[in-house]
């Protein structure tokens, strides 16, 4: 059983502790799902999570609007990730995909949110391009203003839920100014004419990913999210909310790796005694526990700071994302080592964790990019 003592930290309220308890019971009953058909598995997960109310925190409730609760998002991602990486993915993409609508959408655009929160529509966040991943300001896809319409032309790649999403939030160059100030955000239905799946992308931890093509996709002007040229600001605001939740998912993977390792070294005998009696093994376990707790402190500091009303948590979220994902990689690597041959056997839990964690150090801002963000924040504060 994973350590839950962190829930007694002052970052949390009783409602967060109660949520964690209910979600733990739900996960034990419903996860993991069969991953054989990843598209079907994601659809099933979104439907189940929506049916049972777990997707409600991913977007604004238009009947009772209020800010997104980042601590709830983080607790949910951490818990889901401990049980099933694909379940965490399904939950997270519902939030990231609709983040721009929650924060900047018009009432008409926000009509989608009732569907995504109920698990009746799947969302996606389409920002990366073949030549502009971390460098968002280098976006090449265009959105040409044509009367009362915009025409989108170009490509997006590494799009989570690409090919199965019902709606995409897409960022394209509208040209109000050079670089970051000339990008806008658009709401694009998944069945829009001219939107195609150029390629399905397979990665080491199977998730639905695709390269999308936009062949003169015509959208009404009402599809514009926010104002022309606001796209970069919108994208960064969304990432500011959800980046710390990536750290929470990594924390969930790391906790599971630590739990599996503690069980392994208690049960496995080496040289006539349990592995747990070896000082070197104890050293590994101590390092793992230290990294887990330190990551949790950074993740939930960032989430608490945002929930307390901070306009931006760029520094805190970058620190949480960087530290938690990098240290989760270290924790999981130690878990593989402690499991020996079983640790690299396909289908073993620590082997799957080893594949799951690697992408988290890349998406929503690679580790090296987070270092640049942190350095700039620290130096500008001086």
Automatic annotation (TrEMBL):
Keyword field contains Flavoprotein: yes
Gene3D superfamilies for this protein: Acyl-CoA dehydrogenase/oxidase, N-terminal domain, Butyryl-CoA Dehydrogenase, subunit A, domain 2, Butyryl-CoA Dehydrogenase, subunit A, domain 3
Transmembrane segments: none
GO molecular function, one term: acyl-CoA dehydrogenase activity
InterPro entries: Acyl-CoA_Oxase/DH_mid-dom (IPR006091), Acyl-CoA_Oxase/DH_mid-dom_sf (IPR046373), AcylCo_DH-like_C (IPR036250), AcylCo_DH/oxidase_C (IPR009075), AcylCoA_DH/ox_N (IPR013786), AcylCoA_DH/ox_N_sf (IPR037069), AcylCoA_DH/oxidase_NM_dom_sf (IPR009100)
The entry's keywords: FAD, Flavoprotein, Oxidoreductase
Cofactor(s) the record lists: FAD
Family designation: Belongs to the acyl-CoA dehydrogenase family.
The protein's name: Acyl-CoA dehydrogenase
Organism: Rhizobium loti (Mesorhizobium loti)
């Amino acid at each position: 059983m994973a350590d839950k003592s962190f829930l007694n930290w002052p970052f949390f309220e009783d409602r967060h502790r109660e949520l964690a308890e209910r979600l733990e019971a739900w996960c034990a009953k419903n996860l993991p799902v069969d991953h054989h058909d990843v598209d079907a598995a994601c659809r099933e997960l979104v439907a189940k999570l929506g049916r049972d109310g777990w997707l409600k925190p991913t977007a604004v409730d238009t009947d009772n609007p209020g800010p997104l609760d980042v601590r709830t998002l983080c607790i949910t991602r951490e818990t889901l990730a401990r049980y099933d990486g694909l379940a965490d993915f399904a939950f997270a993409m519902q939030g990231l995909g609709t983040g721009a609508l929650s924060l900047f959408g018009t009432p008409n655009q926000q009509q989608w949110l009732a569907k995504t929160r109920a698990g009746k529509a799947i969302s996606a966040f389409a920002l990366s391009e073949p030549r502009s991943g971390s460098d968002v300001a280098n976006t090449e896809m265009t959105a040409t203003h044509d009367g009362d319409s915009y025409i989108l032309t170009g490509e997006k790649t590494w799009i989570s839920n690409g090919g199965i999403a019902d709606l995409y939030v897409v960022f394209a160059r509208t040209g109000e100014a050079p670089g970051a100030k000339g990008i806008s955000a658009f709401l694009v239905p998944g069945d829009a004419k001219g939107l195609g799946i150029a390629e399905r992308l397979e990665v080491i931890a199977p998730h639905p990913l695709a390269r999308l093509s936009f062949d003169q996709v015509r959208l009404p002007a009402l599809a514009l999210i926010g104002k022309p040229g606001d796209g970069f600001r919108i994208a960064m605001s969304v990432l500011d909310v959800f980046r710390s939740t990536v750290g929470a998912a990594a924390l969930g993977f790391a906790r599971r790796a630590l739990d599996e390792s503690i069980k392994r070294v208690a049960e496995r005998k080496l040289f006539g005694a349990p592995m747990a009696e070896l000082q070197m093994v104890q050293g590994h376990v101590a390092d793992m526990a230290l990294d887990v707790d330190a990551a949790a402190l950074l993740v939930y500091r960032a989430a608490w700071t945002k929930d307390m009303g901070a306009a931006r948590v760029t520094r805190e979220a970058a620190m949480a994302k960087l530290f938690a994902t990098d240290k989760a990689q270290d924790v999981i690597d130690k878990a593989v080592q402690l499991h020996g041959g079983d640790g690299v056997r396909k289908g073993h839990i620590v082997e799957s964790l080893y594949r799951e964690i690697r992408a988290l150090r890349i998406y929503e801002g690679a580790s090296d990019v987070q270092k640049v963000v942190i350095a700039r924040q620290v130096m500008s504060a001086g």
